[in-house]
Structure formats: structure tokens, C-alpha cells
Amino acid sequence: MSYQKLVCELKRFHHLNSALDLLGWDEQVNLPQKSAESRAAQSAALADLIHRESIHPQIGSWLNALEQDSLPPAQRCVVTEARRDYDRAVNIPSEFVARRAKQQSQAYHAWVDARNNDDFVAFAPFLKQQIELAREEAAFFDLNDLQAYDYHIDKNDPGMTATVIGNLFDALKDEVVPLVKQILDSTVKPDLSMFKGFSITKQETFLNRVIQTLGFDFDRGRIDVAVHPFCSGNGADTRLTTRYFADNPLDSLFSAIHETGHGLYEQGLPLEHLGTGLGTAAGMSVHESQSRLWENQVGRSRSFWDYWEPLYREAFPDQLSGVTSEQLYLAINAVSRNPIRVDSDEVTYNLHIILRFELEMRLFSGELNIEDLPVAWNDTAEKILGVRPVNDSEGVLQDVHWATGAFGYFPSYSLGNMLAAQLWYAALDEMPGMESDFSTGDFTRLLNWLREKVHHQGRRYGLMELAKEATGHELSCDALIRYLKERYLPLYQPQAS
User: What is the pTM of this model?
Assistant: First the structure.
């Protein structure tokens, strides 16, 4: 009886959180310019209500009773995850939750303006406020500044720590840095001059067709435009966003495919269990593994473009006239020293994440002050990426995450890349010939495999456990390095004359 009451309450919280999530989506997609303060107040009020409801003593009583019972594994998962959320919530005052929601909304709009105006000084007070909020939240659990970063990592990926991530990233950097140099030293150079004057209307039509073919259910979702592409919502109402540039059509396409990966994960979680541990994603690294797998292993593969290239040429005949298939494919897989993370290729992408991870650790330890962050960003970018941003808009201001208090999130992208590569090779081993499906526009075998191995599992496993269960191997950078070498070294190997 207590179990059913708990599940009903968890589902009610889910519906309330979905409403708050929808406010956030609307804020980045539709909100009138002068309505920001009103939205901040709305978000704060709803966040306060949800928090007060989620810490009701009755929930604690149900959890106490259920933890004494012998429950089947599925119900045990629900109770374990509910306990985790409840214990965290009861330690955080409702006043703080409301204040944080309001200040995050304000910081988001300050970031948009600062990015547009290349004005870090204007954004700095808001960023400082977000760091202080992050430390204040960790302090509710008697954690000091050094422990605070691990706390926020754990919020995104339960069980992970900066030490574990740092070890994985050290091994990754040791492999990626020389690989990047080897590729960039090649005499083979992609020609990106073809990407000029691509009709935004035609881009939109094409990418909608792509993401629907991949399996996204438009009867339970939609795609819109935002400053920074994102996916929000849940399996019952999944919101994707992208952005469009006439002279950079691959940005909109691959941003959309990336967010579709997130959306497919949400739509693959069991609808009947939404709001419980059985219907919740395993963590942000697992989420990113889905988006990065569809964007890169699938979306940049030859078999994918065997199917889509004729349709792409049909949509943009003038722009692609005279461009060979090999030139187009090389351009799709161009490797360069790009200062912008979301515009970077998948070979250098992980260096962007390592840069942010190192800076976040320095911010939380107190070694790095907010006012020194732009110079530190540029120096670290030059050291790790080999390129120095020309201004703060393409440097420290390029990402939305810190404006919304998403600290400890960036590592999830590279951890997700590692898991994506392991999942990719496991799928190929279990389904020989899977890539040939893509050549005919059929992605169902891969999607169904991911549904079974990842989506339907909910939170039964954390990142490390899921990697071992789904792929048979501990999480490491080995599969990712193998994949990058197998895809990119042949592309950048000069042909014998």
C-alpha cells in the first residue's frame, strides 16, 4: 500500500516538475524580451511549491516502511532513487530553492545579453552569484569548497567524482592530443567553402525529415529555435531545439541530430514509470552517450550519407554542384582548431570538455577568481586546443551552462563519448551488418537495441554499472580512441599519386 502511495506522489511531483521544465523551455524559445522578470518570479514560485511538496514527512515515513520490506528489484530501484532525492531535498531550504530558480533565470538573460555584446564584465556578477549558490547548496550537506564540486558532479552522474573523471580524462588527453596533431599535420584539407547560402527554410525541412527517420516521435514532441540548442521535457512531451545559419548548415543539422539523441532516450523511457527511478534517465553521461552516438557514430558515418546525400543534393542543388561525394564527406568530418565547442569536430571536442573541467575545478577550489576567468580560459584554450579565442563571446561566454548553474555537467559530454563508442562497438558485434541498414534509411535495429540496453533500464544502473552491463567492458577511453582512429585516420591519409 505504501509503495502505491509513494509512486502516486512521485508521479505528481513529475507533473509539477514538467510544468517548471516547460516554463524553462518557453523562456529560451518564446518569451518576450521584457517578460524576463515575470518568468523569474514564476519559476521561483513553482520551484518553491515543488520543493515544499517533495519534503513532506509522509514521504519519509513511506520510505522508512518500504526499506524494511522485501521488495522485487524493480520496486527496490524506485525506493532507492526516491530515498536519494528525498534525503537531498530535505537538507535544502525551500527559500534557497526559490531564490536559486529566480537567480538562474536572471543569469540566463544576463548571459544572452553579455554573449551578444561580448561583455563578460556585465555577466561576471551573475556568474559569481551562481558559484556562490553552488557552494551554498553543498554547504547544506556540510561539504567544503573542495567537496562541493564532487557534490555537483554527483547530481549529474551519481557516484562519479572529480578524481575518477580526472583519471579518465588524463588517459584521454594523452591519446587525443597526438591524434589531433597527426590529423591536422596531414596535407589532406577539407574544403568548407561549399557551405554558403543554404536556405534556412530548406534546412528546416531537411532536418525535420532526418530526425523523424531516426525515430523521433513528433506526436509526442516538437523542434524549435533557441540561442543554444537543447532538449527538455520528457517522453510524453519532448522539446528539441536547434539554430540556423545560412553559411553553416551543418551546425543546425548536427545540433538537431544531437538533441534528437536526447529526445529518443526520453521517448524510450517507459511512459508508465515516468517520475520514478524506472522511468528516469540514468544520468547525464548516459544521456550524452545517446546524443553523441546519434550525432557522430551514426550521423557522420558513410552509410548514413549514402542514404541522405542524394536528398541533401536535391534540397541544395546549386550549393553542392561540382562537389564530389568524397569532398562532401570530408567536409562533414572536417577536423580543425575551432574555439567554439558546439562547432568543433568530434576529434577535438573532448579537449574542449577537459578545458572546462579543469577551469571548474579551479573555480570551486578558489584558485581561480571570476574576474580572472577570461584570461585563464584563453590561456588554457591555447595550451590544450592550440587556438586562442579572439573575444569572450567565442571564449568564456560561449556556453549557457554556467549561467544556469549547471556545474559538474561538462564532464558528462566526454564520459558520454566514451560510453557511446563502447555501445557502438557492442551493437556492431551483436548486429553484424547494422551499418548497411543506414544506407537504406533504416535505423530501427540500432534504436531498438539502445531501447533494450539503455532506455528501458531507467536508473537500475549508474554510469559505470551500465557500461559494464551493456557493453561487457569497464568504462574507459579505449573504444573512443579506437573509433576516432578508425574513422579519421583513413580520411586524412594522403592518396598515393
Answer: 0.94
pLDDT in tens, 212-225: 999 999 999 999 99
Whether residues 135 and 167 share a domain: the answer is no
Cα distance between residue 450 and residue 252, in whole Å: 24
Cβ atoms of residues 418 and 475 within 8 Å:
yes
Q: Write 71-74 long-range contacts (CB < 8 A, 24+).
A: 71/3, 73/460, 74/278, 74/460
Q: Are residues 64 and 183 in the same domain?
A: no
Pair 126, 190 in one domain: no
| Domain co-membership, 118 together with 200 | no
- Are residue 271 and residue 358 in the same domain, yes or no? yes
Strand ranges of the sheet holding 231-234, from the earlier edge strand across to the other edge:
221-225, 237-242, 231-234
Active site residue 259: yes
**81 and 181 part of one domain:** no
Run of H or E residues at 28: helix 2-29
Q: How many domains does one find in the chain?
A: 2
Q: Which of 27, 81, 259, 346 is catalytic?
A: 259
What is the pLDDT of the chain when averaged over all its residues?
95
pLDDT, tens digit, 9 for 90 and up, residues 375-393: 999 999 999 999 999 999 9
What distance separates the 2 farthest-apart alpha carbons in the chain? Answer: 76
* Residue numbers of the domain that contains 18: 2-142
Partners of 224 in the beta sheet?
Answer: 241
Contact 215, 264 (CB under 8 A): yes
